[in-house]
């Protein structure tokens, strides 16, 4: 019962974190007109389509809960909980999103290459696990495919698409997001485990 409660708590925290990131980062993309939504699908909240925050929240919860499970399967020992490291990872992730929307590069290739290097650098600095890299690639592939389908069905669109219907740097953002949410999920699991051990000692 305790483990189920812990799982629900961690999932809820990850869901709310994903919702927050979705609102803030999507607002940045919309303001810079990187993504454009038809007027009829926009809700008033943060000028974002209503389905984006819960979708991102669900994905964040799934990734964050899956990450520590993969660690166990591959025999990776959990690191001591260091929330300062997680916060630095979040700052770098937000910085990558900021670069995609705010910085003007000479061309799409230069932008995509720069963001790819930043995303891999984020993984190298804050993860370095094969399971994390594989999960990040999986998230990037699946999320980019879903984005292609949504744009194809005119749910929204990207200005200046250069990778079928979307921007070529989009997989880099999804990869970095997967690594970031995975690290948050991993640290939540370690913190929860440490808290449980302390309670057992007190008993």
From TrEMBL:
GO terms for cellular component: SREBP-SCAP-Insig complex. It is a multi-pass membrane protein. Keywords: Cholesterol metabolism, Endoplasmic reticulum, Lipid metabolism, Membrane, Steroid metabolism, Sterol metabolism, Transmembrane, Transmembrane helix. It is found in: Endoplasmic reticulum membrane. GO terms for biological process: cellular response to insulin stimulus; cholesterol biosynthetic process; SREBP signaling pathway; SREBP-SCAP complex retention in endoplasmic reticulum. The chain crosses the membrane at residues 12-30, 50-70, 105-126, 133-152, 164-184. It comes from the Eukaryota. The keyword Membrane applies. It holds the Pfam family INSIG. Belongs to the INSIG family. This is Insulin-induced gene protein. The lineage of its organism: Eukaryota, Metazoa, Spiralia, Lophotrochozoa, Mollusca.
């Amino acid at each position: 019962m305790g483990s189920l409660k812990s799982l629900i708590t961690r999932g809820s925290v990850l869901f709310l974190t994903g919702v927050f990131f979705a609102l803030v980062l999507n607002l940045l993309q919309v303001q810079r007109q990187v993504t454009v939504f038809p007027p009829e699908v926009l809700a008033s909240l943060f000028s974002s389509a209503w389905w984006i925050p819960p979708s991102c929240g669900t994905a964040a919860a799934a990734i964050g809960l899956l990450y520590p499970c993969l660690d166990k399967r591959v025999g990776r020992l959990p690191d001591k909980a260091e929330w300062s490291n997680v916060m630095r990872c979040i700052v770098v992730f937000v910085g990558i999103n900021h670069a995609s929307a705010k910085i003007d590069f000479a061309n799409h290739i230069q932008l995509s290459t720069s963001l790819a290097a930043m995303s891999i650098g984020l993984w190298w600095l804050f993860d370095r696990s094969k399971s994390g890299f594989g999960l990040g690639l999986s998230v990037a592939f699946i999320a980019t495919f879903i984005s292609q389908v949504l744009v194809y069905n005119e749910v929204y669109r990207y200005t200046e698409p250069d990778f079928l219907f979307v921007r070529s740097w989009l997989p880099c953002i999804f990869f970095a997001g997967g690594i970031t949410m995975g690290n948050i999920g991993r640290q939540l699991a370690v913190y929860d485990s440490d808290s449980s051990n302390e309670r057992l000692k007190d008993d």
